[in-house]
Known about the structure:
The complex is a heterodimer. By secondary structure, chain A is mainly alpha-helical.
Amino acid sequence: MTTTTVQDEQPQPEAEGAESRAALPTLRRWLEATRDALLIPALALLTALAIGGLVIVFSSPDTLDAWSGFFSHPGETLSESWQLVWDSYYALYDTSLGSWPAFSRTLVEATPLAFTGLSVALAFRAGLFNIGAAGQLVIGATCAGWVGFTWHLPSAIHIPLAVAAGFVGGALWGSIAGVLKARTGAHEVITTIMLNYVAYYLLDYALRSDAFLRPGRNDPISKPVLESARLPDFTIGDLTLHLGLFMALAAAWLVWWLFGRSTIGFRLRAVGANPNAARYAGMGVGATYVLAMVLAGGLAGLAGTTNILGRESFSLTGGYYRELGFDGIAVALLGRANPIGVLAAALLFGIMRSGSTGMQAQTSTPVDIIVVIQALIIAFVAAPDLVRAIYRVRARREAEPAFTTSWGA
Amino acid sequence: MKVELRGITKRWPGVVAADGVDLSVESGEVHALLGENGAGKTNLMNILFGLHPPDEGEMFLDGEPFQPRSPADSIRAGIGMVHQHFKLVPVFTVAENVMLGVEPTGFLGRLDRQRGRQRVAELSEHYGLAVTPGATVEDLSVGVQQRVEILKALYREARCLILDEPTAVLTPREIDELMRIIRELAEAGRSVIFISHKLREVLSIADRITVLRRGRVVGETTPAEADAQKLASMMVGRDVQLVVDKTPAEPGPPVLDVAGLVVADDRGHRVVDGVDLDVRAGEILAIAGVQGNGQTELIEALTGLRGPISGSVQLDGTDVTGASPDHLFEAGLAHVPEDRQRDGLIGSFTVAANMVLNQIDSPPFSRGFRVNRPAIQEHAEQLVDDFDVRTPSVQATVSGLSGGNQQKVIVAREFFHARRLLILSQPTRGLDVGSIQYIHRQVVAKRDEGVAVLLNSSELDEVLALADRIAVIYRGRIVGVLDRTDANSERLGLLMAGAVEEAAEVAPVEGEEEEVVVT
């Protein structure tokens, strides 16, 4: 038997594939990442609008009538359907973005969504699925509202105090789930869902007490927040912005800074990405969970705060805006748990919320279509492979964990 | 059965896993396929087993062209594969597992257990496998489970048996047993393809050896013509120093002092049952033992990850029993964990971030809450240089690196701050020869700096290469502490298997362990 030895070239580094991928210039890598981050949500939106269009056509009695005569005059049927979809979407656009006052309303809708979206995104980066933004929002609004209509103080003190009360209320509410998880291992999905109900009924209970109930009313509505605690408006021409919007922008920046530049964010991300390795590295995993839930709860609390202190009516009611908490999950998902993405997603959802009533008024397309479209967007974002298959987009081999698949484990 | 592969080529995106591979295995031959991790051994066998079609090349069985489209084709043609991870149903009996998929049936498809069981017993008898057909698989030791896998292949009339890294999970004694079985199979005219990266085993069992590197055959030889040194060089592609260069230890005062340590596992069993140990400055103490004898829990207790039930741990004379990991870190302890991907690294983080995972709160890496990114970058670049981590940049995510380089990231991080005590758990598991050699040299260098090193390894070769003293752990107790000069693999193997109690494996009896004093 013979012995043959082929002399090989210089030993090469292993994992050549990984190397050439990562060795791309930073800018190109960044551009690719951005494109990838935008591509799927954009395609998801497009697909959702297309399917939403079909739903619009088939939910209108008039167009359905027209479709029964499709074979006698197909052209007319199609153009009538197209017209309806176009009119609906145009009305949606017109009443949300078509004028400065409309845009102002959109921003008012988007502001709390930005906060709840940030709340869910922050918790997610730390490996937690915060379903409790709704309850934290309600508690935050309750605390801020109570400070706002109970105490009589000059604005310069009253506003910061009310805002702080809202943040602290939400943070405390969030921390309950964090402590339960750290101490007993109770899953935050379960505890935050349950705490939502506790929060709703706490508000209902409070609204029956003299401390909250508006004098002379029997239905559950609180006293209005005093002028001195209301968030100031800034008016530029026809555009009206309240302070809450700037607070949301600041919060987004702060979350970005926290994750990108601070040791706290490093720890949150480490625990979120691999709690075992974080523990081996000497990080307090339980304490980090509590911290994440405190911050997430505080952000959701601010959603309620800016709403109660900055939005017409200035009063708490039964069932107060709890849906904003759940929409926050969708916003975080669409924004890929990235602060800038969350702001963009919040704006998109704000547009839908503020344009939907206008759409119904002008074209009699029901408001519920918007819910369908929102749900479709989320479904498509959650199933990126489906979108890729529809549009024949090739997947980039990415190391980062997919947002959707890591949830609920 | 004679198996022939000619010019087999298989390309995966970005990798050529097999590049014109020729391989011929004669009947009755034990043919070793040797190569580092990622050399393409398993991939080649998966092609032969019908899991992936080759892009180019031909295969012949006994001279007949063979083009399997699925494992079923290969099994029908007489090829059997024993995978690294067993594919057994734990709650089924041996006979049921063996029959699964090819059950003998009687009238109207009635399962003929009796016939199946009888055949299994015959086969077991014939090849000296010593497996009871009626035993439930989950009750069997790993070595016996492996024999069940071999039985499965034999039951399907396999004439060529592929064993993928079969010794990775076995104790030294089980390895000897396996070697005997392989010999008997070959003598009965079956061909055996033995995949391994362990030189010693390959040299002891193979008739012929084919060495693969980067998907290519770089040489074919026989144990008579080659030695370990030569095989290692062929595998790696350059000269390799197999023996770790080290001078006798010059032990200083004890750094770690463990007395009467008792630790329970997650289910509350006392898996560390009164361990006494001391590790002195400037020496390497190895804990040798078969996996699952309490090593994991012992290390967890020493590194602050698991609270002990009783006993004490002293570091430099200070009591640190039950201290937290960050406290121990401050006291100068560094730890390379057993499962690097689970516990040692955050895969989605960059190399740079992983390098400071446990130091992010200390200067210069942060000031207050603010992370100092330039300092982290600089530190990481320095360590990447010092420890020869092959990475495109320190900003690359760590999950994209090869196993050896991932381990080097951990080693770099931990060795950098190991001032007093360095605890290493399976530091080279699954790594290629080049990386192992490198890490071993670094360990010795740390020892020579006067650091106390505690090495937990289930590789006997590694223990013998590195240790100055060896403590053998068996069922949660240290059953003997040997000087390296008094130790050899037979002696250690005996102690690891429970020494005097030959019968222990068959019928475990509680409280039967005795301290074996080896002088």
